[in-house]
C-alpha cells in the first residue's frame, strides 16, 4: 500500500514537529490499515502528526519505524528495504526493525545516537494497529475487540478507508449522533420517519452510547435491499464511541409483528458498522471502516453491494464534515450554539481534553513529606 496522495498533502511540516502540545491522544491504539495493506514494500504514513514507515518483516510481523534518518533527516521511506533492515537513500545508514543502526558506510563505529524510534504494532482480525505515543505504555490487551469479530455466526468484511479533510474530533462526533441520519442519509441509512424520534444518551460507562428505535415504519433503503421485509419494521440505531476514536454502529430491522424486545436484536437483520478513526494531522483524518452482519454469511456479492451502499452514505458524511471544517477554519463572528442532541459529543470532547492534559503532565504520585496539606 503506497501512501495516498491525500496523506502526502496532509503530512505535517517537519518544522512544526517537536515538543509542542498537540491536539491528539497519542497514548492509544490507532488503525494503520488492513493486514492486506502491509507487505514487503516500505509504506509511509502519518498518525497523530507522527511520521512512520511500516513494512512486514520476514517473520510475518509488521514493523513501524520513525520515518526520518537521524543523519540528514531524509525519510527512510525514500530509501530501500534490505532483508529486515531499511537503508537510508541519502548516505546508506541502515536500521533494523528495532530501530538500531546496524551499518554506517565508511566507518566501523556505530554512534549511540544513531537510531530511530519504533512504534508498537498489534495485528488481529485482519487489522493492523499502531501506538504513536509512549511505547512503554502500550498494552496489547487494551486494543479494541468485540466477540462478534471472532464469532463464525457473524460475517466479517473489511471495507475501505475514507479520506476526510476534517479534524478527527468532528469525524468521531458524527459517529455518536443518530440524529443526523434522517437528514444526511435519507435514501440509505435513514428517512423522515425518524426526524422527531427521541435520542437516548448514556455517558456513564467506558463508551459513550446514543440510541433510538423507530417503531412500525417503512424499511430504510439499506434494509429494503437486504432485509426482504414485506411490511413495516421496527428499526434501531445504537452508536458506541470508544475513546479516543473507535465507533461501533449497531443498526438493524425486525418485522414489526414480532414485537422484538430491545435486548433481542439478533432476531432481526443486524449489522455492526465499525469505524476506526485515525488522526493524520489536525485537518486530515482517515476513517477505516468494516462491517459485521448476521445475514448473507459468506456471500461476496452481498458484501460488494453493502460496500457500495456504505460508500454512498459515508461520502455524504464526508461532504458535510469537510464543509464544516472549512467553515471552522474561517474567522468566526460568533460562537456556535449547542442543542439537546449534543450531549454525547460534549461529553466526548471533555474526555478527550482530559486525556490530552494527562499526557502533557507527569504525575509523580503522593509526596512522602508534603509541604502543602490540602483540605478539599
Automatic annotation (TrEMBL):
GO terms for biological process: methylation. It holds the Pfam family VanA_C. Keywords: 2Fe-2S, Iron, Iron-sulfur, Metal-binding, Methyltransferase, Monooxygenase, Oxidoreductase, Transferase. The keyword Iron-sulfur applies. InterPro entries: Cholesterol_7-desaturase, Rieske_2Fe-2S, Rieske_2Fe-2S_sf, VanA_C_cat. GO terms for molecular function: 2 iron, 2 sulfur cluster binding; metal ion binding; methyltransferase activity; monooxygenase activity. Residues 29-130 form the Rieske domain. This is Vanillate O-demethylase monooxygenase subunit. The lineage of its organism: Bacteria, Pseudomonadati, Pseudomonadota, Alphaproteobacteria, Rhodobacterales.
Amino acid at each position: 500500500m503506497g501512501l495516498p496522495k491525500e496523506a502526502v498533502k496532509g503530512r505535517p511540516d517537519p518544522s512544526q514537529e517537536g515538543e509542542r502540545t498537540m491536539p491528539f491522544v497519542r497514548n492509544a491504539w490507532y488503525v494503520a490499515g488492513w493486514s492486506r495493506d502491509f507487505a514487503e514494500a516500505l509504506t509511509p504514513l502519518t498518525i497523530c502528526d507522527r511520521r512512520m514507515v511500516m513494512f512486514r518483516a520476514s517473520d510475518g510481523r509488521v514493523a513501524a519505524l520513525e520515518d526520518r534518518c537521524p543523519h540528514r533527516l531524509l525519510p527512510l521511506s525514500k530509501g530501500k528495504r534490505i532483508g529486515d533492515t531499511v537503508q537510508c537513500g541519502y548516505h546508506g545508514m541502515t536500521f533494523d526493525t528495532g530501530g538500531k543502526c546496524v551499518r554506517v558506510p565508511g566507518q566501523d563505529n556505530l554512534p549511540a545516537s544513531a537510531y530511530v524510534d519504533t512504534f508498537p504494532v498489534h495485528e488481529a482480525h485482519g487489522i493492523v494497529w499502531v501506538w504513536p505515543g509512549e511505547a512503554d505504555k502500550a498494552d496489547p490487551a487494551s486494543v479494541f475487540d468485540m466477540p462478534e469479530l471472532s464469532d463464525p455466526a457473524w460475517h466479517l468484511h473489511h471495507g475501505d478507508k475514507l479520506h476526510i479533510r476534517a479534524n478527527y474530533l468532528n469525524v468521531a462526533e458524527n459517529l455518536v449522533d443518530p440524529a443526523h441520519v434522517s437528514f444526511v442519509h435519507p435514501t440509505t441509512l435513514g428517512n423522515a420517519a425518524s426526524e422527531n424520534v427521541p435520542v437516548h444518551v448514556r455517558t456513564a460507562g467506558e463508551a459513550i452510547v446514543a440510541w433510538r428505535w423507530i417503531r412500525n415504519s417503512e424499511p430504510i433503503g439499506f434494509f429494503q435491499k437486504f432485509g426482504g421485509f414485506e411490511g413495516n419494521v421496527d428499526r434501531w440505531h445504537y452508536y458506541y464511541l470508544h475513546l479516543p476514536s473507535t465507533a461501533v454502529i449497531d443498526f438493524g430491522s425486525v418485522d414489526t409483528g414480532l414485537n422484538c424486545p430491545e435486548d433481542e436484536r439478533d432476531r432481526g437483520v443486524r449489522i455492526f458498522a465499525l469505524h476506526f478513526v485515525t488522526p493524520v494531522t489536525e485537518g486530515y483524518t482517515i476513517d477505516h471502516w468494516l462491517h459485521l452482519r448476521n445475514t448473507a454469511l459468506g456471500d461476496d456479492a452481498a458484501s460488494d453491494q453493502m460496500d457500495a451502499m456504505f460508500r454512498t452514505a459515508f461520502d455524504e458524511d464526508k461532504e458535510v464534515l469537510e464543509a464544516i471544517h472549512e467553515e471552522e477554519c474561517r474567522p468566526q463572528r460568533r460562537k456556535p450554539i449547542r442543542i439537546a442532541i449534543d450531549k454525547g459529543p460534549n461529553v466526548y470532547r471533555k474526555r478527550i481534553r482530559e486525556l490530552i492534559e494527562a499526557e502533557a503532565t507527569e504525575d509523580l504520585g503522593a509526596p512522602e513529606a508534603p509541604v502543602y496539606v490540602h483540605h478539599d
